[in-house]
Amino acid sequence: MTSYSTSLQHFHVPQRLRSRCRRRPSREAVGELAANSTAQEAEAAGRLETRVEEREGGYWVLKEKFRAGINLQEKVKLEKDPMTLVYEDGIRKLAATPLEEMEASKSGKDDIDVRLKWLGLFHRRKHQYGRFMMRLKLPNGVTTSEQTRYLASVIQSYGEDGCADITTRQNWQIRGVQLTDVPSILDGLTAVGLTSLQSGMDNVRNPVGNPLAGIDPFEIVDTRPYASLLSSFVTANSKGNLSLTNLPRKWNVCVVGSHDLYEHPHINDLAYMPAEKYGRFGFNLLVGGFFSPKRCAEAVPLDAWIPADDVIPLCKAVLEAYRDLGSRGNRQKTRMMWLINELGIETFRTEVENRMPKGNLERASPGELVMKQWERRDYLGVHPQKQLGFSFVGLHVPVGRVQAVDMFELARIADAYGSGELRLTVEQNILIPNVENSRLSALLEEPLLKKRFSPGPSILMKGLVACTGSQFCGQAIIETKARALWVTEEVERRVAVAQPVRMHWTGCPNSCGQVQVADIGFMGCLTRNADGKVCEGVDVYLGGRIGSDSHLGELYKKGVPCDELVPVVVEILVEKFGAVRKVREEDHEALPCDAKYLYKK
């Protein structure tokens, strides 16, 4: 049999059909083919027409012809651009207006519940009416003792309503904020080199990098400069970048600098993967990773490589392609991967290439620098830095919740033992870098490390992550943080686990707790208990992976009542992770100390 290459064999025509194929097509058939081709080309050309345009003042607006079927949030943006709160001093006017007066009009309600998110302010209408969560920008998760003290002073002023959370994007969120205080808080943030601008809604979220950047003996590249450049570009140096504030949906970016892939590139809209080409350092690119209630997708290769100098031009090109072409209809279908799927990866790549400064985008490099066979390291505890005589100390922060007193102590410790710097991680923990080895013993004896933020937590606690949950978040279906601690402590009383198991909790299908990347994930839902009564429950996910063999977990069991979850987790750990059951004298049903502390101000 004649052999053919795969590509040619696909188009090979059997001998018995060749005579038919040689026949001249009829005039009618030619006309029909031409008409179909023309229609397809016209359709394709129309789909690639830019859907937004720049208006007076630099604001980008959806064109009139593309406004049919748009979602409610797009309508709010059309009625009044959210960035007017920044550029036209709208935030000071809002802060001086009584909440009741703003609630009297649709525009006022939209300001409170939607447009303020462009300033990083999220109204807690459902659970803390009149209070706001403020999300910051903290590129690469790097912060200072001065910044930490300032944030602590803000939440301390709100008493029991104030606290802070470390997010799954190496970031701070502070809670309890009152609108009347926002102008002065924003001024205070500026004074310490922080901003909350463009940290919510249809904007670029906090750029993630290697938490060990600059101190890791095995790092590939220091990601801090790139993450900082990205943040500065996206926000125009914290002044607001109007060309990027009207995206179809939120957008995540990370720069990978470690073999450990601490940055979780497979769940970002754009991930920079270190690679060399022609002896030059640069990045291959992954695009499209995301979570949503309707769909979760891993990032896919763009088949493109850029030199390190093109990090910003590439980011700009990808964002503009998404801004110009992305759908603005159903909010569940407006993340960038939906656009990539609609156009096809090659067409999307072409659109990005067309927006590059020189209209050129090189193909991916085979010289990837991330080692495939690499065992992910645990950064909690004491570890030597590349700087001789110095170490970093990783502290476990139970489910990422901190109080003002904790933040003041963290700032003091960073000054006393390190260089005044703190690092946040996507697992909601904290690193103290640049500690002289001679000071390690004293640091480890600090009460904060002994009682609250241990460098050596239990094997299940160290991998525990939880979103905000219904305590503060209006979208959450269940309470997460205290329950995650309680379930974990109860499970630890019942089984002995010999290997790390990462357990993530999220209060709703939005998956802010990233349950799909966990070994065991718990997604909040409503279900029925044994008595048939509606109660808080979880859908259980298994098999998520991070690192070089990363992939998303799959649904294992639906609708488990939270009160019945402990034995289910025990069974999973025994069957799937080799845990051994303990012999117990009695069950302990009291709320654990750490969980109680979540509500203690």
Automatic annotation (TrEMBL):
Cite the GO molecular-function annotations of the record. Answer: 4 iron, 4 sulfur cluster binding; ferredoxin-nitrite reductase activity; heme binding; metal ion binding
Task: Give the span(s) annotated as Disordered.
Answer: 15-49
Membrane in keyword set: no
Q: What class of enzyme is it?
A: oxidoreductase
Which positions fall inside the Nitrite/sulphite reductase 4Fe-4S domain? 201-358, 464-573
Q: Which reaction does it catalyse?
A: 6 oxidized [2Fe-2S]-[ferredoxin] + NH4(+) + 2 H2O = nitrite + 6 reduced [2Fe-2S]-[ferredoxin] + 8 H(+)
- Residue ranges of every copy of the Nitrite/Sulfite reductase ferredoxin-like domain listed in the record: 125-191, 383-447
Q: In which pathway does it act?
A: Nitrogen metabolism; nitrate reduction (assimilation)
| Any one of the GO BP annotations | nitrate assimilation
Q: Which UniProt keywords apply?
A: 4Fe-4S, Heme, Iron, Iron-sulfur, Metal-binding, Nitrate assimilation, Oxidoreductase
The family database entries (Pfam families) matched by this protein are listed as: NIR_SIR, NIR_SIR_ferr
Domain of life of the source: Eukaryota
Q: EC?
A: 1.7.7.1
Compositional bias ranges of the Low complexity kind: 34-43
Which cofactor names does the annotation list? [4Fe-4S] cluster; siroheme
| Compositional bias (Basic residues) | 15-25
In the UniProt record, does the keyword ATP-binding occur?
no
Q: Which PANTHER family match?
A: FERREDOXIN--NITRITE REDUCTASE, CHLOROPLASTIC
Q: Which family does it belong to?
A: Belongs to the nitrite and sulfite reductase 4Fe-4S domain family.
Q: What is this protein called?
A: Ferredoxin--nitrite reductase, chloroplastic
